[in-house]
Structures are given as C-alpha cells and as structure tokens.
Amino acid sequence: CEKWGGLRHEVSKRCLAACKAAKLVNFETPRKYGLIAETFSPENDCLTAAMKLKRPVAAKMHEKLIKSIYK
Fold first, then answer.
1. What value, to the nearest 5°, has the Cα angle with vertex 52 and ends 24 and 41?
2. Reported pTM
3. pLDDT tens, position by position, 23-70
4. In this structure, how many other beta carbons lie within 10 angstroms of the beta carbon of residue 66?
5. Rounded Cα distance, 65 and 63, in Å
6. Residue 53's beta-bridge partner residues?
7. Contacts made by residues 61-70, CB under 8 angstroms, sequence distance 24+
8. What one-character DSSP code corresponds to residue 53?
9. H helices of the chain, where?
C-alpha cells in the first residue's frame, strides 16, 4: 500500500536522524523494525497498571510480525 510505504519511509528517516543526533554507532542503529497501529495499554493487557511493558504478552500478541523481521 502506497500510504504505508510513505509512512514507513518517514519513520525510517526520523529514526535515522534521531540515531545520528544521539551519536549512536552503526551497530546501535536499528536496521529492521515493524510498525503496529495499536498502542500498548492496560486495556489490551500489554501494560501493567504502573505503565510498564509486559514483554511476553506484547511478544505473543505480535509474534508474526517479530518472526517476519528476523527471517
């Protein structure tokens, strides 16, 4: 989809700019990543009441995306 391609390009551009501004070295800069439309919240059980990420829940929820990134 053209709309998502433009969004992906803009996110890539801003991520790279933020990494350069933080003076990250090459291996610290993300090469592959996935975008998700929904936010993490206590309602979808991805965050605790203290707003901490529940990594196993989030990983299970987005397992397909994570696997596609590491192919």
1. 105
2. 0.70
3. 999 999 998 888 898 899 999 999 999 999 999 999 999 999 999 998
4. 13
5. 6
6. 47
7. 62/34, 62/36, 65/34, 65/36, 66/34, 68/34, 69/32, 69/33, 69/34, 70/32
8. B
9. 2-21, 55-61, 63-69
